[in-house]
Structures are given as C-alpha cells and as structure tokens.
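Service request form, structural biology core

Requester: graduate student, group of Dr. S.
Request type: structure prediction, single chain
Budget code: on file
Notes: please return the result as structure tokens.

Sequence provided:
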Amino acid sequence: MSLAVERYGEGMADCVLVHGWGLNHAVWSDLSARLGAHCRLHAVDLPGHGSSSAGSGGLDAWAGRLAGVVPGPAVWIAWSLGGVVSLRMAQWRPDRVRALVLIDISPRFAVAADWPWGAPASLLEEFARRLETDFYGLLHEFVALNARGAQAGAARALRQLRDAVALAPPTREGLRQGLDILRTADLRAALPHVHVPVLVVNGERDRLTHPQAARWMAQALPDGEYCGIGGAAHAPFLSHADVFGDRVIDFLRRRGILPSADGI
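Core staff response, request fulfilled:
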C-alpha cells in the first residue's frame, strides 16, 4: 500500500520530509519554501495520517512503505515518530539514504532501567487510554505539547500545527499504530550500522524528547553530529524556522549534497 506524497521543487537532490505523530505533510511549508528551489521534495503522510490509509503493521511495515517513496537515495528530513521510522528504514534500506536529518527523536522513546531519558510508562498509558476515550481532546493537547516550552515562536508554531491537523486529521488506527511504535521501538543497537551522515537536531527546551537522548544518539552514530537549538521545544523547524533552515542547509553543503555556492 503506497503512501500519499506531495511532490514539488526543483534541483538535483531528492529530499523526503516525514512528519510526526498526529500530524501530516502540511507541517513542512516553511522548510519547503527554502528548499524547493534546490531540491526535489517528497512530503509524505505516514500511515493513517493525512491522506494515507492506515493499513496494518508496526515499525517494519511502516519503514517498508516509506522506502517506496523514492526509487533511489535521498536526504530524509524526519521529525519525532517520522524520525524513528526513517531511522529503521535507513538500517534496512541503506540504498535509499544519502543523509538523515533527525529532528527531536530518541532511539528509544520509552524509559527503561538503562535508558533514563525516555517518557514514563504512565504518560504512554494515558495516551493509549485517551486515544480510545477522548480522541480529539488528546489530539488537541498533544499538538499544544509540541510547542510548549519554546521561548520564542511558540504561538506561530502552535497555529501551524493546528492548521495542519485541521487540514487532514489522522485516523484513530493510524495513531494506535504510531503510538505502539513509540511504546515498543528500541533502535539503540542499530545506530552503529547506519553509515550515512546524520544531523541530529533537538530543541533544548523539548518536553517530549530529552536533549540528552539526542546527544547520546549523535555520539553513537558513526557519522553523527548534534545540533541543539536554544529556546526551541519539540517543533524547532516551526518555532525557529530560520535558524533550523540555516542549520540544515549548512549541513547539506558541508556534506556535498548542496553546492557551497548555491546562494540559498
């Protein structure tokens, strides 16, 4: 089952944009405006989100569907749940990946005895309960949590997130599958086998993904680098769009994916 994809932009490099839990491709409008003149953009809706059907399956099934978005190697810019799925896809299908930009993700979202930077089990259980009993209330509060804590740009980020959900709300089944991935996925052991350049970006005031988890991940990757964005929460590409865009473009230039004299 294929995913819904919005394709636009020009340039030599293919770039796939993958959103987070509960959202859809519309969250990438700011970044797309900067990259569209220089990359061929493929903005994906994850299963059960936006215009994509939910189908069935967990992390591997989602990663398999994601691998079919482009026929060859691309830059994958992926946020939160989308970053987890993209990281699994990069491990499984390295032929599809030139580089990764992973935004506010953790290789393990849930806390564990050997992983202190995860979300508590009580939070994940509450999400699962409210998904069945208060679907729209949970979605509304979760969207707000993405921007909460940002020192600047929070109102603008929240407005864009809400607009995206209003444009194409997710399905309950899509959220169930996505939440199950977040509750169970543990990609820590996979990190040493991801042999592409990876920029790990995290808002330093993120309330959902601990910045220390992102720092640890950048160190565990063979070719990873950490980029903290001060004053940003869980959606730095919205609240701090210019700073985020500059960091991504600099990364792509340094890695030879965009020409250094591109003029972006």
